[in-house]
From TrEMBL:
It comes from Alkaliphilus serpentinus. GO terms for molecular function: ATP binding; ATP hydrolysis activity; DNA binding. It holds the Pfam family SMC_hinge. GO terms for biological process: chromosome condensation; chromosome segregation; DNA replication; sister chromatid cohesion. Its main location: cytoplasm. ATP binds at residues 32-39. The lineage of its organism: Bacteria, Bacillati, Bacillota, Clostridia, Peptostreptococcales. SUPFAM superfamilies: P-loop containing nucleoside triphosphate hydrolases, Smc hinge domain. Homodimer. The keyword DNA-binding applies. CDD domains: ABC_SMC_barmotin. This is Chromosome partition protein Smc. Residues 227-370, 395-450, 479-516, 682-817, 867-1037 form a coiled coil.
Length: 1194
C-alpha cells in the first residue's frame, strides 16, 4: 500500500486545483520560505481527520479555506483528496484504490467521502487504525511533532508507541466496552428501582381489576337484554316494511309494463323518422347523381374541342423539327474540318520539343558529374578540419592532465608537511591521554561511595510512601463507596421524581385528563389536581392513609360542579375513559357524633384519619367527606377492639394497611409494604433528600482526610524525588565517568593506530610524488608532437580550397546555359498544351452536335405517335357523351317516384302519436299509487333509523353488531325485571376503575419485561467484563513485544546516526504496561548521560528522528510525510539522515518537505512550490531519475 495521488483545491494558499502524483521511493517538496510548501503536509493531515485548527496553524477550521488576495476573490470551499493504492488489501476494504476526500465550507459544514460515497469521520479513522496513518500515528512528522516527542509527558509520549504496537484498535474497543459497562450498571440500577415500584403496584391493581371485571360482566348482561329489546322493535318494523315493499313491487311492475308499451310506440315513431331520414338521403343521392351526370356531359363536350385543337398543333411541330435537323448537320461538318487542322499543327510542335529536350539532357549530365567532383574535394577539406579539431582536443586534454600533475605534485608536498606535523601532535596527545585515565579512575571510586548513601535514604522514604499509599487507597475506597451510595440514592430519587411527574400508578383516564388540563389551560381552570397531590401525611402513616382513601386517592378536585361537568364532557368527547371528580361546592363534610367522639377518646392509640393529615383549609370539606369517619390504629387487635365499641360504624385502618370495613368485614394480608403506593413514594422522596445530604457531608469529610494524606505523601515524594534526582545525577556522572574512561582508552588505541597510519602515509606520499614527476615530463613531449601535425594539415587545406574556387566558376557558367534551354522547352510546352485544349473542345462540340441531331429525330417519331393517340381519344369521347345523355333521363324518372313514397310515411306517423297519448294517462294514475306507498315506507324507515341511532348512542353498536348478541326473549316482563336487578347490582359495586384491567395487564407485562431485561443486563455486564479482560491481556502482550523491538532498534539507529553513543527506552512503571509512561534516555558520543532538555537543538532532532526510524523498522508506515524535520541538523548529520532514509524507502514511501541540499539529492522526484502570484502557491515537478538517465545516455 502507498500514496498514489494528492489533489488540493481551495486549501490555504492553493487557490487553484493542483494534483501531485507519487511513486514508491522518495518525493521531495522544495521552495522558498513562505511559498506554501508546508501546506501540502497540512492538507494530508487535514484530509486524514485532523480536528484541531491549531495543529493546522489556524484559529478556526474555516481558516484552511483560501482567503483571497488583492487580485483574487476568496473561495467558498476547501477540498483535499488522497488516493491510496490498496492492491495488497492491507486496509479491510475490497477496493484496489481508496480515495479519501474531505470538504469544508465557510458555513462550517464539513463533509467526508470514501471512494466518492459520503461517510463519517469515524469510518475513516477505523479504516486507518493501526496502519501508522491514523491521528495518533507517525505518518506525518513536522518540526513541532519532533519537539513534542521529546518534550511531552512520559505518559502522553506512549501514544506513538501504541500506534506502532498496533493496539490502538484494541484500546478504542476497550474504551467503548468500558463506556457500555458503565451504562449497563446505570441501567441495572434504574431497572431495579422501577421493578421495586411496579411490584408494589401489582396487588392493588389486581383487586381493582377483579372488581372491574365483575362490573363488566353485569354490564354485559344488562347490555344483552336492552339491546335485544331494541332488536325486537326493529324486527317488527322490518315486517311492515316488507309488506309495503311487496305492494311497491307490483305497482312498479305495472309502471314498467306501461313504460315499455310507451317505449315501443316511441320506437315506432323513431322508425318512421329513420324512414324519412333514409328518404331524404336517397332523394339527395339521386338528385346529386343527376347533377353530376349533367356536369360530366359538359366536361366531355369541352374534351372534344380540346382534342381537335391538339391535332392541329401536332402538324406544325413536325415541320419545325425537320428544319432544325438540317441546320445541325451542316454545323457538324464544319467543326470536323477545324479538328483535322489542329491535329497536324500538334504533330509539328511535338517534334520541335523532343529535339530541345535531348540537348538539355546532355548538358545536365555534364553539370552533375562536375558537381560530384567538387563535393569530394569539399569532403576531403572537411575531414582535414575535423582532424585539426580532434588534435586540438587531444592537446587540451594533455595540457589539463599536465596542470593536474603539477597541482598533484604541489598537493603531495603540502600534504607531506601536514602529515609530519600531525604525527608530532599525535605523540603529544598520547602522553596526555595516559595522565587523564589515572585521574578518571580516582573520581569513579569517590562517586560509588556517594551512591551507596543515597540508595539507603531512598529505601527509608519508599517504606514511608508505601504506608501512606495504603492509607490513601483505603480512603479512596471509602470515597468510592460513598459516591456509589450517593449515585444510588440520586438515581432512586430521579426514578421517583420521574414517576411523580408522569403520575405513575394512576389510572390511564386520570393521567389523560391531567395531561389535557396541562395542555389546555381553559379546560383546567378551577382544577386543583388529584387528592394524592393535595395532602401531606406524617411519616409512618402513609400506608394507612392511602388504604383509607382507596381509589379516591386518584379523584380529581375542582372548585365547582360546572367544572366537573366540563371535564366529564371532555372525557366523553375524546373517549378518554372514566374519572371521579370532587367539586368543593357540592361535597358535604361528614361528622362524628359526640357519643362516637367520646368512645374514640377513651380508646388508646386510636386517631381519626382526618386529624392526622395536613391539608389546605379550602379542601377541608373534601377530606372531611373522605377521612372523617376513618380511624387509624397501630395494629389489627386495636382495630377489632375499636370496631366492637363503635358498633362497626367506622372504617378502621392499621398502620400496616389491614382494614376493618363498616359492617364488620376485614381486609388484609402481606402484599402491602410500607414503601408502596403513591403516598409512600412521596415519603420516600423526602427521606432520600435527607439521606443524600448526609452522604454528601460524609463524602466531603472523607475527601478532606484523603487530601491530608496526599499532602503528606507529596512532601515525602518530593524528598524522594530530590534523592532520585541526586541518584540519577550520580548515575549520569558514573555513566559519564565510565564512558570517559572507555573513551580515553579507546582514544589511546586510536592515537596509537593513527600514529602507524601517519608513518605509512608519509612513505606513500613520497612514492606518489616521484611517479607524478615522471608523467609530467612525458606529457610535455607529446604536446609538442601534436602541434607539428596540426601545422602540416592546415597547408593541405589551403591548396584544396584554391582548386575548388576555379571549378565552382565553370559550374556557374554551365548552369546559366541549362537555364536558357529550360526556358525554351517551357515556352514550346505551353503552345502544345494550348493546342491540346482546342482539340479537346472541338471533339466535345462534335459529340454534342451528333446528340442534338439524334434527339430531334426522336422527337419527330414521338410527334407522329401522338397524332395517332389523339385521333383514338376523340372517338372515345364522342361515345361517352352519348351514354351520359341516356343516364340523365333515367335519374329524372326515379326522383318523381321518391316524392310519392314520402306522403305514405307521414300518414303512419300521425296514427302512432294518437296511441301514445292514451298510454300516458294510465301511467299517471299508477305513479300516484306508487308515491303513497313510498311515503308510508319512509315513515317506517325513520322509526327504524331512530332505533338504530339509539343503539349507537347508548351502546355504540350497529344493528349488525347487535344481531350477533341476539337471544330468544320469551317473557318481556321478566326481561324488564332482570334489567332492573342488574342495574341495582352495578350501583352496589360503587366506584369502579375500568382502566385497572388494562393497567394491571400493562404493569404486569412491564414488570415481566423489565425482569427479563434485568437478567439480560447482568449477562451483558459479565460478558463486557470478560471482553475487557481479554483485550487488556492481548494489548499488554503485543505492546511488550513490540516495545522491546523498538527499544533495540532505537539504540542501533541512534548509534548509527550519531556515529556512537547509546540510547534507551524505559517504561516508568513496568508493572503497569498499559498506562506506564515512556522515558527516553540519550547519550551522544563524547558527552555525559544527561536530561533530554539539556541536549542541543540538532541533538534533540536527531534523537527524535532515531526514534521515528526505529519505529518504522518495526512497523513500516505505508507512507510518511516529513516536514523539515532535519532543519536543525548540520550538513554531516543531514547526509547520515539522508542515507538512512534511502534505506528505509525500500519499505516505506517518503514525502519530504525540505530546503536542505543533502536531502534533495536522494529524492527520486522533486516538486517545487513557488508563489509567482502573491498569496497563491503554484506547483512544478521534476523527475530526477529520468534526468539522470538522460544525462548518462548523452
Amino acid at each position: 500500500m502507498y500514496l498514489k495521488r494528492l489533489e488540493i483545491q481551495g486549501f490555504k494558499s492553493f487557490a487553484d486545483k493542483i494534483e501531485m502524483q507519487y511513486e514508491n521511493g522518495i518525493t521531495g517538496v522544495v521552495g522558498p520560505n513562505g511559498s506554501g510548501k508546508s501546506n501540502i503536509s497540512d492538507s494530508i493531515r487535514w484530509v486524514l481527520g485532523e480536528q484541531s485548527p491549531k495543529s493546522l496553524r489556524g484559529s478556526k477550521m474555516e481558516d484552511v479555506i483560501f482567503a483571497g488576495t488583492a487580485s483574487r476573490r476568496p473561495v467558498g470551499m476547501a477540498e483535499v483528496s488522497i488516493t491510496l493504492d490498496n492492491a495488497s488489501r492491507k486496509m479491510p476494504i475490497d477496493y484496489g484504490e481508496i480515495t479519501i476526500t474531505r470538504r469544508v465550507y465557510r458555513s462550517g459544514e464539513s463533509e467526508y467521502y470514501l471512494n466518492k460515497s459520503a461517510c463519517r469521520l469515524k469510518d475513516i479513522r477505523e479504516l486507518l487504525m493501526d496502519t501508522g496513518i491514523g491521528k495518533e500515528g507517525y505518518s506525518i512528522i513536522g518540526q513541532g511533532k519532533i519537539d513534542e516527542i521529546l518534550s511531552s509527558k512520559a505518559e502522553d509520549r506512549r501514544l506513538i508507541f501504541e500506534e506502532a504496537a498496533g493496539i490502538i484498535k484494541y484500546k478504542t474497543r476497550r474504551d467503548e466496552a468500558e463506556k457500555k459497562l458503565t451504562s449497563t450498571k446505570d441501567n441495572l440500577l434504574r431497572v431495579a428501582d422501577i421493578l421495586h415500584e411496579l411490584e408494589n403496584q401489582l396487588e392493588p391493581l389486581r383487586r381493582q381489576s377483579v372488581k372491574a371485571k365483575k362490573y363488566q360482566e353485569l354490564k354485559g348482561k344488562l347490555l344483552t337484554l336492552e339491546v335485544n329489546l331494541f332488536i325486537r322493535e326493529i324486527d317488527k318494523i322490518e315486517v311492515e316494511l316488507n309488506n309495503i315493499n311487496n305492494q311497491l313491487k307490483k305497482v312498479t311492475e305495472s309502471l314498467e309494463e306501461g313504460r315499455l308499451e310507451k317505449q315501443r310506440h316511441a320506437e315506432g315513431i323513431e322508425n318512421i323518422k329513420q324512414q324519412l331520414n333514409q328518404w331524404d338521403i336517397e332523394y339527395s343521392q339521386l338528385q346529386g347523381a343527376f347533377h353530376q351526370t349533367e356536369n360530366e356531359m359538359k366536361q366531355k363536350e369541352g374534351d372534344l374541342q380540346l382534342f381537335k385543337e391538339k391535332l392541329s398543333n401536332n402538324d406544325e411541330n413536325v415541320k419545325r423539327l425537320k428544319d432544325e435537323i438540317r441546320q445541325a448537320e451542316e454545323n457538324h461538318q464544319e467543326v470536323k474540318f477545324q479538328l483535322e487542322e489542329k491535329l497536324i499543327l500538334l504533330e509539328e510542335i511535338c517534334q520541335q520539343l523532343n529535339e530541345l529536350q535531348r540537348g538539355l539532357t546532355i548538358k545536365l549530365e555534364d553539370y552533375e558529374a562536375k558537381a560530384i567532383k567538387n563535393s569530394e574535394k569539399e569532403r576531403e577539406m572537411e575531414d582535414s578540419k575535423s582532424y585539426i579539431i580532434d588534435t586540438l582536443n587531444r592537446i587540451s586534454d594533455k595540457k589539463s592532465e599536465l596542470n593536474s600533475l603539477k597541482t598533484l605534485l604541489q598537493t603531495m608536498e603540502d600534504r607531506l608537511l601536514q602529515v609530519e606535523g600531525e604525527n608530532d601532535t599525535n605523540i603529544q596527545k598520547l602522553r596526555e591521554n595516559q595522565d587523564e585515565i589515572v585521574i578518571l579512575d580516582d573520581e569513579h571510586r569517590q562517586l560509588s561511595e556517594e551512591m551507596k548513601l543515597i540508595l539507603h535514604q531512598e529505601e527509608t522514604h519508599k517504606e514511608e510512601l508505601k504506608t501512606l499509599d495504603d492509607e490513601i487507597t483505603e480512603g479512596y475506597k471509602g470515597l468510592e463507596a460513598l459516591k456509589n451510595k450517593m449515585n444510588h440514592l440520586q438515581s432512586r430519587k430521579n426514578v421517583l421524581e420521574e414517576m411523580e411527574k408522569e403520575h405513575e400508578g394512576f389510572n390511564k383516564s386520570v393521567k389523560n385528563i391531567l395531561q389535557a388540563c396541562k395542555e389546555n389551560p381553559s379546560l383546567g381552570r378551577g382544577v386543583h389536581g388529584v387528592v394524592a397531590d393535595l395532602i401531606k401525611v406524617p411519616k409512618g402513616y402513609e400506608t394507612a392513609i392511602e388504604i383509607a382513601l382507596g381509589p379516591a386517592i386518584q379523584n380529581i378536585v375542582c372548585d365547582k360542579d360546572e367544572e366537573a361537568k366540563r371535564l366529564i364532557l371532555h372525557m366523553k368527547n375524546k373517549n378518554l375513559g372514566r374519572i371521579t371528580i370532587l367539586p368543593i361546592n357540592t361535597i358535604q363534610s361528614r361528622s362524628i357524633t359526640s357519643d362516637e367522639l367520646s368512645i374514640i377518646d377513651q380508646l388508646s392509640n386510636v386517631k381519626i384519619a382526618f386529624d392526622i393529615v395536613d391539608i389546605d383549609p379550602k379542601f377541608k370539606k373534601i377530606f372531611s367527606s373522605l377521612l372523617s369517619r376513618v380511624l387509624v390504629v397501630p395494629n389489627i387487635e386495636a382495630g377489632v377492639e375499636a370496631a366492637k365499641k363503635l358498633n362497626y360504624r367506622f372504617k378502621i385502618v392499621t398502620l400496616d394497611g389491614d382494614v376493618l370495613n363498616i359492617g364488620g368485614s376485614l381486609t388484609g394480608g402481606s402484599s402491602i409494604k410500607n414503601t408502596s403506593g403513591i403516598l409512600g413514594r412521596k415519603r420516600e422522596l423526602e427521606d432520600l433528600l435527607e439521606d443524600i445530604n448526609l452522604a454528601a457531608n460524609s463524602y466531603n469529610k472523607k475527601n478532606q482526610e484523603v487530601h491530608t494524606l496526599k499532602d503528606n505523601r507529596e512532601f515525602i515524594s518530593e524528598n524522594l524525588s530530590g534523592l532520585n534526582l541526586r541518584r540519577q545525577d550520580a548515575r549520569i556522572k558514573e555513566a559519564t565517568l565510565i564512558n570517559q574512561i572507555q573513551q580515553a582508552k579507546k582514544e589511546k588505541d586510536s592515537l596509537e593506530g593513527v600514529n602507524k597510519q601517519l608513518l605509512a602515509e608519509i612513505i606513500q606520499l613520497k612514492k606518489v610524488k616521484e611517479e607524478s614527476y615522471s608523467k609530467l615530463q612525458l606529457r610535455e613531449k607529446e604536446i609538442q608532437e601534436l602541434e607539428v601535425k596540426i601545422s602540416n594539415t592546415k597547408d593541405s587545406i589551403n591548396s584544396i580550397h584554391d582548386l575548388l574556387q576555379l571549378e565552382k566558376t565553370k559550374l556557374e557558367e554551365l548552369n546559366s546555359e541549362i537555364t536558357g534551354e529550360k526556358v525554351k522547352v517551357a515556352s514550346i510546352e505551353g503552345k502544345k498544351q494550348s493546342i491540346l485544349q482546342e482539340i479537346e473542345y472541338l471533339q466535345q462540340t462534335i459529340q454534342k452536335n451528333e446528340g442534338t441531331i439524334l434527339n430531334k429525330q426522336m422527337e419527330v417519331v414521338d410527334t407522329n405517335q401522338r397524332f395517332i393517340d389523339l385521333t383514338h381519344q376523340l372517338k372515345s369521347s364522342e361515345q361517352q357523351l352519348e351514354m351520359l345523355t341516356q343516364r340523365a333521363s333515367i335519374l329524372d324518372q326515379q326522383l318523381n317516384e321518391k316524392k310519392d313514397k314520402k306522403n305514405t310515411i307521414l300518414e303512419a306517423e300521425a296514427k302512432i302519436h294518437s296511441e301514445i297519448t292514451s298510454f300516458e294517462e294510465d301511467l299517471a294514475k299508477l305513479q300516484e299509487d306508487f308515491h303513497k306507498l313510498e311515503l308510508k315506507r319512509t315513515k317506517l324507515d325513520m322509526q327504524q333509523q331512530s332505533y338504530y341511532n339509539r343503539l349507537w348512542e347508548e351502546y355504540e353498536l350497529t344493528y349488525q353488531s347487535a344481531v350477533e348478541m341476539k337471544i330468544e326473549i320469551e317473557d318481556i316482563s321478566q326481561s324488564n325485571k332482570d334489567i332492573k336487578n342488574y342495574k341495582d347490582e352495578i350501583k352496589a359495586l360503587g366506584s369502579v376503575n375500568i382502566d385497572s384491567i388494562e393497567e394491571y395487564d400493562r404493569v404486569k407485562e412491564r414488570f415481566e419485561f423489565l425482569r427479563k431485561q434485568q437478567e439480560d443486563l447482568l449477562q451483558a455486564q459479565d460478558s463486557l467484563n470478560e471482553i475487557i479482560k481479554d483485550m487488556e491481556k492481548t494489548m499488554e502482550k503485543q505492546f511488550t513485544q513490540q516495545f522491546q523491538i523498538i527499544k533495540e532498534n532505537f539504540n542501533t539507529v541512534f548509534t548509527k546516526l550519531f556515529g556512537g553513543g547509546r540510547a534507551d527506552l524505559v517504561l516508568e512503571e513496568e508493572g503497569n504496561v498499559l498506562k506506564s509512561g515512556v522515558e527516553i534516555i540519550a547519550q551522544p558520543p563524547g558527552k555525559k548521560l544527561q536530561n533530554l532538555s539539556l541536549l542541543s537543538g540538532g541533538e534533540r532532532a536527531l534523537t527524535a528522528i532515531s526514534l521515528l526510524f526505529a519505529i518504522l523498522l518495526v512497523k513500516p508506515s505505508p507512507f510518511c510525510i516529513l516536514d523539515e524535520i532535519e532543519a536543525a541538523l548540520d550538513d554531516s548529520n543531514v547526509h547520515r539522515f539522508a542515507a538512512f532514509l534511502k534505506e528505509l524507502s525500500e519499505t516505506t514511501q517518503f514525502i519530504i518537505v525540505t530546503h536542505r541540499k543533502g536531502t534533495m539529492e536522494i529524492a527520486d522526484v522533486l516538486y517545487g512550490v513557488t508563489m509567482e502570484e502573491e498569496g497563491v502557491s503554484k506547483l512544478v515537478s521534476v523527475k530526477l531519475m529520468d534526468q539522470e538517465e538522460d544525462e548518462m545516455a548523452s
